[in-house]
Amino acid sequence: MLHTDPRPFGVMLDVSRNAVMTVPRIKEYVARLHKFGYNTLMLYTEDTYEIEGEPYFGHKRGRYSVEELREVVAFCTGLGVEVIPCIQTLAHLATIFRWPCYKEILDVDDILMIDDQRTYALIEKMFATLRKIFPGRRIHIGMDEAAHVGLGNFLNKNGYEDRYSLLSRHLKRICAIAKEYDFEPMLWGDMFLRLVNGGKYVLLQEPNVPSPEQLDLPEEVSLVYWDYYDTRKKHYDTLLAAFEKLGRPFWFAGGAWGWASFAPDNAFSLRHARAAMEACREKPPVGTFVTLWGDDGGECSFHALMPALFAWAAFYRGEADMNQIKAEFEAEFGIPFDDFCLLDIRRPQEGVTRNDGAINNPEKYLLYNDPFLGLCDSALMGGEGEFYARRAEALTPWCEHPQYGALFREARALCRVLSVKAELGVRTRALYKNGATAEQWSALLADYDKAGALLSEFIDAFRALWLEDNKPFGLEIHEIRLGGLLTRLSFCRKRLAEHAEKGTAIAELEEESLDLMGGGTKMGAKALRFPLWKNMISPNRMAEHNM
To answer: What CA–CA distance (Å, rounded) separates 30 from 7?
Structure first.
């Protein structure tokens, strides 16, 4: 399956959103992907790498030491895989701002203060550290999604300034530092389109494009066109043409979807990959890579995305026959392609198109959905419990696989929880509203007990898989979330028992439930995707930032 295309074709592993993959696991992962034809690796590190003289940078986050990263680079170099550092030099640095020593270089949100000399002193330390580790010249400096740049403390201190000029000036400062350390930067290209398109980036119509003169990029800079949400070739044709007009070398970054939930979405990733690669073959970028993000905590193991990554490499080579691709996959993994994709445990939603990137994650929002508040109840179609029970059985044959069994055990454990929990709140509200016999209350209370026991089993399975893949740092976030759910189920069960015995009112169940998507009291199935776990549980405030 190896190919001789000299262009970079790689994968980017997000090791910043709680989950920091261990060095042995990275080696195993890269060795497998190299067999498919991947020749490039990026490790997306926001603050999860050691910087000399900055003890709080990545403190208690599982950051990589210089020695660990050198070990990764040496291993990959031996395979013929280039490792490109992938950092942030503007936004997406929320975790450093929890420490007082960085507060003075905060503009707003998770964005560094442009023009502050302390900002550039920190960035220079980043480059100095990375030059000790990475032998190549390529570096990814981030600079994406800084929507409010210049509108926070910078505005208070300096007044309003044209933000395109502000961004351009900051980039030139970074490029000067990069040149000092013999790096050639690339950066996410969205900000240059957003600032001339009213904040919009992914557009089906042709966007406004700055001229090369207006763009005013340093000569050595390349752009990265990232796009993860569409399955239509014409969409990619439009944006590829827009990036070509910018007059700079550009890369394409697609996505293998594992960042919406505990479960992957290989099915959507395949459709996205096919359309994107068809477009890229007609208008080839200088390099291509597949991003594996870990939004909201890195819940999904990157190993669960092997079907998507295997097929992506085939599409990149120009192969199109899925039957052949599936046969090659089974020969490589010893697991049928479609069986591996059973890890995509979400239930298809009738009448919902996914051409527009309508990723949904019911296996996550139905897990966290509070049984009394029921914010997500309006998305239920009925029969979820039965669906997840069947999926748990379908996953069972592969649960003892020597290499990938932990993936299937975790997915099965989640399905077993959902077979009871998914419709628990709807049943609770119906019995409370309509009245119930003693036998019905007893059966409901037994299901609360069962849901709690199965949730404990899922926590064990999730913890086991996490520790196979990652350093222990970051696991505490999920144990707190899932442990909170376990406590909540227990308390709801106690209050229901009191109601069944004494008729005690339950305030949350007294209040009418409204459709989360704005349909009033009219309920109906929706294609929902919640990017943050906290939005699935309560309308009350839990946290300011995504960890």
So the answer is: 17
Q: How many angstroms from the chain centroid is the CA of residue 231? A: 18
What does the block give as tokens for 321?
Answer: 């026959």
Structure tokens at 43: 């490790």
For 509, residues 6+ apart whose C-beta sits below 8 A from its C-beta are 372, 428, 429, 432, 433
Q: Do 242 and 189 contact (CB within 8 A), yes or no?
A: no
Q: Among residues 262, 274, 192, which one has the least CA distance to residue 232?
A: 274
Nearest to 433 by CA among 521, 523, 511: 511
pTM: 0.94
CA distance 115 to 29: 40
Could you tell me the domains of the chain? 9-343 (3.20.20.80), 362-536 (1.20.120.670)
List per-residue pLDDT tens for the chain, 547 residues long: 545 568 999 999 999 999 999 999 999 999 999 999 999 999 999 999 999 999 999 999 999 999 999 999 999 999 999 999 999 999 999 999 999 999 999 999 999 999 999 999 999 999 999 999 999 999 999 998 888 999 999 999 999 998 888 988 999 999 999 999 999 999 998 877 776 677 777 655 677 787 777 778 888 999 999 999 899 999 999 999 989 988 889 999 999 999 999 999 999 999 999 999 999 999 999 999 999 999 999 999 999 999 999 999 999 999 999 999 999 999 999 999 999 999 999 876 544 444 444 678 999 999 999 999 999 998 888 999 999 999 999 999 999 999 999 999 999 999 999 999 999 999 999 999 998 999 999 999 999 999 999 999 999 999 999 999 999 999 999 999 999 999 999 999 999 999 999 999 999 999 988 887 777 665 555 567 777 888 888 989 886 654 3
